[in-house]
Amino acid sequence: MTAINIGSKPNPATDAPLEPGALVSAATPAAQSGPEHVEEPVAYDAILLASFGGPEGQDDVIPFLRNVTRGRGIPESRLEEVAHHYRAFGGVSPINDQNRELKAALEHRLAERGIDLPVLWGNRNWNPYLNDALREANEAGYTKLIGLATSAYSSYSSCRQYREDFADALEDTGLGGVIQIDKIRQYFDHPGFVTPFIEGVRTAFDTVREAHPDIDFSTEVEVLFATHSIPSSDAARSGPAERGFDGNGAYAAQHLAVAEVVMHAVTGDSGTTVPWQLVYQSRSGPPSMPWLEPDVNDAIADLPARGIRAVIVVPLGFVSDHMEVLWDLDNEAKESADEQGLFFVRAPTPGVHAAYVDGLIDLVLERVNGTPKAERPAMTDLGPWYDVCRPGCCENVRLGFKPAVSGLKP
Questions:
Q1: Residue 2's pLDDT is what?
Q2: Domain ranges of the chain
Q3: pLDDT value at position 317?
């Protein structure tokens, strides 16, 4: 008999069975055949807010990190090295409170807009877990859920792993065949996600001008768009192979496209060209394994030689100010800028910005209403992204293809 993991992370699923005639596991009938964009309305019962999770006290830190690194053979000594980031904040990651705030904001705005969809919340690595959220759904009689992950881009950890998480939770709870889970498209170029960054960079420009009225933005200011680094092998396999992305895959291409949109929106009318680049942070792999570069701190160290006096760091890959923003940017990147004598400004993440909250609801409504692809907003030429993930999308080279839902196999 399968053990019931109440209040604990579910074990990896052994299978993601298909309904008779279906090509997508655990999908609603509208998505079972695997269309790129589902243009048939679906009467969902609830929204499933899915996130990474984080510790909420000193005693939680190591168990949480064990969950994050499960199956990777990471020694306890290495976990202790990472733990000090959390311990510096009392062992509490801000991400759970941020998700509570986002859940409340979604519920409030759904009510204001007259949309009767409850919001359930489950995490990958800490309470409340996704299996607990599915039990909550089952107890309420909800059978059709629309998954909303707190990650906007295409990669293993930001998309496919959430789809694996859904499969894990369905198998763990025995609710496969009872609960169906679709997932909203990756929303990296949706106006609701991009608008807060445009506003944040504009405000950052004003902050630099106030501090340095004489500064030349075309030669003395640089914008660094920061996102989480991932293994180069995973990056190369992010997004569908048929799209023909370069060696860094859809993950880098999506970030670069959004950064270009942000810079054009901020500087387009002024005629000023402000230098910018995409940088990476939070690398955690062994030195022998190539990861996406340059690291944000290395990029900052190179700026003074080019005459840069001020740096604006934009956490483009993140939806909220969680630990990797607070520690890696507000602490380490700022320290690097201080060491180089650079004026440092960090733009905000979307958090619960009104445009972001409304945008997430709009993405859900695309699936509720079966909105045609031609009517869906996208601020880059790469979107609107797929509702149903394509075969082989975002493979994890080290783990292979594990059971997943909301996409075509493998």
A1: 45
A2: 1-54+93-186+352-410, 191-346
A3: 98
List Cα–Cα distances, 265 to 29, 103, 195, in angstroms: 40, 29, 9
Regions in the chain scoring below 70 on pLDDT: 1-6
Between CA 186 and CA 383 the distance in angstroms is 9
Whole-number percent of the chain with pLDDT over 90: 91
- The CATH label, of 3.60.10.10, 3.40.50.720, 3.40.50.1400, 3.30.70.20, for the domain at 191-346 is 3.40.50.1400
Same fold, 1-54+93-186+352-410 and 191-346: yes
CA distance 261 to 267: 10
- Give the per-residue pLDDT at 5: 58
What lies within 8 Å, CB to CB, of 30 at 6+ separation is: 38, 40, 41, 42, 182, 370
CA torsion angle for 10, 12, 17, 18 (degrees, to 10)? Answer: 90
User: Cα 27 vs. chain centroid, distance in angstroms?
Assistant: 22
- Closest by Cα among 207, 37, 216, 46 to 118: 46
Contact assessment for residue 203 and residue 262, using Cβ atoms and an 8 Å cutoff = no
Geometric angle at alpha carbon 89, from 84 and 91, rounded to 5°: 70
Q: Give the 3-state secondary structure of residue 81.
A: helix
Roughly what angle, to the nearest 10 degrees, separates helices 130-140 and 161-173?
60
Helix (H, G, I), strand (E, B), or coil: what is residue 371? Answer: coil
Name the DSSP class of 29. Answer: T
305 DSSP assignment? G
Contact criterion met (CB below 8 Å) for 281 and 316 = no
pLDDT of residue 4: 54
How many CB atoms are located within 10 Å of the residue 353 CB? 20
- Give the residue ranges of DSSP H helices in 242-289: 249-267
Q: How confident is the model at residue 140, as a pLDDT?
A: 98
Q: Is pTM, for the whole model, over 0.90?
A: yes
Structure tokens at 292: 């996406």
Domain 1-54+93-186+352-410 in CATH 3.40.50.1400? The answer is: yes
Closest CA to 146 of 406, 408, 409: 406
The torsion angles phi and psi of 223, rounded to 5 degrees, stand at -105, 125
Average pLDDT across the chain, whole number: 95
**pLDDT the model gives residue 6:** 63
How far apart are the C-alpha atoms of 277 and 52, rounded to whole Å?
27
- pLDDT above 70 covers a percentage of the chain that reads 99
C-alpha dihedral, 262 to 359 to 103 to 152, nearest 10°? -50
